[in-house]
Every structure is written in structure tokens, then in C-alpha cells.
UniProtKB/TrEMBL annotation:
It comes from the Bacteria. Residues 375-397, 447-472 are annotated as: Disordered. Interacts with sigma-54. Residues 450-460 have a biased composition (Basic and acidic residues). The keyword Ligase does not apply. GO terms for molecular function: ATP binding; sequence-specific DNA binding. SMART domains: AAA, REC. Its main location: cytoplasm. The keyword Signal does not apply. It comes from Paroceanicella profunda. This is DNA-binding transcriptional regulator NtrC. It is found in: Cytoplasm. Member of the two-component regulatory system NtrB/NtrC, which controls expression of the nitrogen-regulated (ntr) genes in response to nitrogen limitation. Phosphorylated NtrC binds directly to DNA and stimulates the formation of open promoter-sigma54-RNA polymerase complexes.
């Protein structure tokens, strides 16, 4: 199936010109003037998509929208439209999973060729940088997720290490979800269990096996049959339980208390810890043989301080998620927010950032999250001016339009009506050809086609079709 096209561009004139170009080819085209509308369209309309994404959107920018899409596991092919043509921006876009990029002003021939190529591509898993919805742009995260992706389909036990809130459980779930295992993902917090209950909870028991065992329980291992058992805070497991766990891992069978003997289990083990297990082993608190059984592969997640470049994408992703949960609109962060977020130490890592963004969203008025929403009390050294009450800025509300915006739209409309013919467009707008060219450059409206032999005809046919489609 050919992909649909979504044009995400805040400049109405450019957006219309691009949309018209592809409608004229008989393609299905949707338009969005900001990130939130784009996400709404991607939610509401079935893909697959080619998304033409302007990098300089107001509010949530194009790069952050790209991260949000990748974070959601979207399989759209994204072509970034970059204004400055800076190699850095293009590289960052490709790292975040863009399929291609074009510099503005975009030559329509080139745009057509690039879109045709991507529109014909079958739906495929999102490209590198993305793994089961996790945000990753920092090299250490990209490497960690790459390892996770490769090991996921195997039965290899994986030990995930990293500070609290760095995403260990989230990664474990992602490994399970992409493992192809059909059983359940069962999580056990080994630090929160009373020592006396660990064995019956993990391995199960028969009715009457001990005082209070009024009915049989299968235990977490057998609940995870055919699936994954996630042993969180493994570093806090008492030594006696470590011995029993080691036996189960070695034998591949559990021996429920009061039961008739061992029962074999097919369970993939994932474990996580924020402790330094090497030090725990050296101190005699953790069994080395168990460590080697659990750490078939070890994946270390960095703290947020070591992945500063991911902060804005994580914040945008979680703001968009929180907005959906709260039934709110989120159109981006206000001035200074990105810099402020980047300057915080975030000792609680992604979880702390997520909580801060959620709270700011709840406190915000309107669809933009402002700096003051993150610091409602305002530290004494940095007085926070009260945020002016946000005016309703939702779609459909009346607003004053800048003359430049109206002018750019008028030019784009005229170009479409006149099938891209410059002289005719200028005449009907009542301006000279050179003024029209100057204004087109100013608003980054590219000519529909380079005036080459034999091309005018093709352009006029296309755009005539576009007009008819628009008028329908
Ligand atoms: N790369 C990421 N992209 C998006 N969200 C993330 C990412 N990493 C973590 N999160 C989110 O951050 C929160 C904390 O993650 P998680 O609970 O997995 O951390 P943890 O390391 O297991 O914490 P703890 O050690 O305290 O149990 C979760 O809501 C998770 O969805």
C-alpha cells in the first residue's frame, strides 16, 4: 500500500503548496500546523505515512516531534525539512530516526522524487535509535538499546544495571515485548519481600504446605511460564534465597513447597539492580555463581546527567503522554524551558523528569508549558514572574493574523490557481514578476517547477488537478 502523506509545517503558504503538489498526484494528504495536530492526525488516521516535517515548528519543534513519534514506536518515514541546511541538524535528525532530509527552500522536483521513493517503501520497524518506544539519542543509550534489540529474541538472561529511575524496568519490558515470547511478563521486587516468604512466592506451594497456606499457589516462576520473569532489585535478595534461585536457574525446574517434586519451567530471566554487584560479591553479599547465571549479557543504562541531549525529547515525550492521560492539549514548551531542563541535575533520572513534566503540565494554563509552571514557588534567588493567564489558543479560536502570513497565503493560493505560472500569478496579484519572486523567496515558497522545456505542461496539469481536488 502506498503511504499517505502528512505535511507538518506552520507556514500556511508552504504547507498548502506542498500538499497541493501531492494531491495533484492523487495521493492522500493531511496537513498539520503544529506538533500536537500532527500527533492527533497520526492517532486518528490509519497509516502508513510519509511525514514531511518542518524542523522549525513553534512550540514542540520538529526534532522533538520526531523523538515523540519514535518513542511511540511510529513506523512513519520522516523526511525533515531543514531551514538552515546545517549538517549538524541533519545528522541529529537522522540519529533520531529520520529517513531523509531536504533543505529549504525545497525544489519541488526533488521533493517529489524523495517522497515517491519513501512512499513506495513497505511499513518496517522504526529505524535505529528507537526500540519499543524508548527515547534514545545519546550515544551510550543508543548503544544500550542496540544491545537490547539484538539480545531480545534469544533466551539469554540479561542483567540491566543503572541508577534509580534510569529506565531499567522499562527496558526489561521492552526486551520481553520484542522477544516473541507469548507468556506473561512477571515482575518481582526482590528488595520488598519478607525473607520468610520469598521461596513460596517465587516457587509456589501446595495447600497446607505451611501454616496459613490455605490454598495452592503456582509461584511467580510458573506464572511466567513461556514468558519472562523480571527480578528487580536483585542485589537485595537475601543469600538463602539466592541459593534456591541458583538451583532453579541451573536445573530449569522449580520445587514447590509441599509439592510432589520438581516441575520444569520455560522462563526467560531478566534482572535489574542499581547496586554495584561486583562490590556486593567482594563483600560476600551476593553469590558470584548466581551473578554469572543472570548476567548472560549486562546492559548498563546511564543516568540522565550522562544523556543531556535526550532531555528535551524525553520531556516532550512525557508531556505528550501526560497530556493524553489528562485529556489536555500540549503544543510545546515556552521560552527558556529547554535550557532550564538541561541545567537541572535530575538525581532521580527519567522518573524525576517525568514527574516534573507531569506536574508542570497540570499546573499550566493553556496548551504551552511555561518555565513558571516548572517552578511554581520560585526559589528566592530566581524570582519567577507570575505567568500571564494564557489566552485560549486552541484551534478554531479567533486570532489576529500577521500581514505577512496573509500575504504568503495569498501568493500560495494564486500560484495554485495559476498552475504555478509566474507571469500569470504576478499579473493577477497585481504585482510585478520580480516582486513576486522576491516575496516567494522571503516566504520560502519555491517555484513549482524549474522553468525547463516541456515541464510547464506537466506542472500545470498537476496543479490544475490539485485545485479541482481542493474545490471538491
Ligand atoms: N528511554 C526512555 N524513554 C522514555 N521513557 C523512559 C525512558 N527511560 C525511562 N523512562 C520512563 O521513566 C520512568 C522510570 O523508569 P523505570 O521505572 O524503568 O526506572 P528503573 O531504573 O527501573 O527505576 P528503579 O531503579 O527505581 O526501579 C518510567 O515511567 C519509564 O517509562
Amino acid at each position: 500500500m502506498e503511504r499517505r502523506i502528512l505535511v507538518v509545517e506552520d507556514d500556511a503558504a508552504q504547507r498548502r503548496v506542498i500538499a497541493a503538489l501531492f494531491r495533484a498526484q492523487g495521493r492522500v494528504v493531511s496537513e498539520a500546523d503544529c506538533a500536537q495536530v500532527a500527533l492527533d492526525i497520526l492517532d486518528a488516521e490509519a497509516g502508513p505515512w510519509v511525514v514531511l516535517l518542518d524542523i522549525g515548528l513553534p512550540g514542540m519543534g520538529g526534532l522533538d516531534l520526531l523523538s515523540v513519534m519514535r518513542g511511540r514506536g511510529d513506523d512513519a518515514r520522516v523526511v525533515m525539512l531543514t531551514a538552515d541546511g546545517g549538517v549538524d541538524t541533519a545528522v541529529r535528525a537522522m540519529q533520531r530516526g529520520a529517513a531523509d532530509y531536504l533543505e529549504k527552500p525545497v525544489a519541488m522536483d526533488r521533493l517529489r522524487a524523495v517522497v515517491a521513493r519513501h512512499a513506495a517503501m513497505p511499513a518496517a520497524p522504526a529505524p535505529s535509535g528507537a526500540f519499543a518506544g524508548l527515547v534514545a539519542g545519546a550515544p551510550a543509550m543508543v548503544a544500550a538499546l542496540d544491545l537490547a534489540r539484538r539480545v531480545a529474541p534469544s533466551r539469554m538472561p540479561v542483567l540491566v544495571t543503572g541508577p534509580s529511575g534510569s529506565g531499567k524496568e522499562r527496558l526489561a519490558r521492552a526486551i520481553h515485548e520484542t522477544s516473541g515470547r507469548t507468556g506473561a511478563f512477571v515482575a518481582v521486587n526482590c528488595g520488598a519481600l519478607p525473607e520468610s516468604l520469598i521461596e513460596s512466592l517465587l516457587f509456589g506451594h501446595e495447600k497446607g504446605a505451611f501454616t496459613g497456606a490455605d490454598r495452592a499457589k503456582p509461584g511467580r516462576f510458573r506464572e511466567a511460564e513461556g514468558g519472562t520473569l523480571f527480578l528487580d532489585e536483585i542485589g537485595e535478595m537475601p543469600l538463602a534465597a539466592q541459593v534456591s534461585l541458583l538451583r532453579v536457574v541451573q536445573e530449569g525446574e522449580v520445587d514447590p513447597l509441599g509439592g510432589r517434586g520438581p516441575v520444569s519451567v520455560d522462563v526467560r530471566l531478566l534482572a535489574a539492580t542499581n547496586r554495584d554487584l561486583g562490590a556486593e560479591i567482594a563483600e560476600g553479599r551476593f553469590r558470584e555463581d548466581l551473578y554469572f547465571r543472570l548476567a548472560g549479557v549486562e546492559i548498563a543504562l546511564p543516568g540522565l546527567a550522562e544523556r543531556g541531549e535526550d532531555i528535551s525529547a524525553l520531556a516532550a515525550t512525557h508531556a505528550a503522554e501526560a497530556a493524553r492521560r489528562e485529556g489536555r492539549q500540549f503544543h510545546g514548551f515556552g521560552p527558556g524551558v529547554a535550557e532550564w531542563l538541561a541545567a537541572q541535575p535530575w538525581p532521580g533520572n527519567v522518573r524525576e523528569l517525568q514527574n516534573a513534566v507531569h506536574r508542570a503540565l497540570v499546573l499550566s494554563e493553556g496548551s504551552e508549558i511555561r518555565l513558571a509552571d516548572f517552578r511554581p514557588a520560585g526559589p528566592a534567588s530566581e524570582p519567577v514572574r507570575p505567568a500571564p493567564r494564557a489566552r485560549p489558543s486552541e484551534r478554531g479560536a479567533r486570532r489576529v493574523r500577521a500581514l505577512a502570513e496573509v500575504e504568503a497565503e495569498a501568493i500560495a493560493d494564486a500560484l495554485i490557481l495559476c498552475s504555478g505560472q509566474i507571469s500569470e500569478t504576478a499579473r493577477r496579484l497585481g504585482i510585478g514578476r520580480s516582486t513576486l519572486y522576491r516575496k516567494m523567496a522571503q516566504y520560502q515558497i519555491a517555484p513549482f517547477n524549474e522553468p525547463r522545456e516541456g515541464r510547464e505542461h506537466e506542472a500545470s496539469q498537476d496543479l490544475g488537478g490539485a485545485r479541482r481536488q481542493q474545490e471538491r
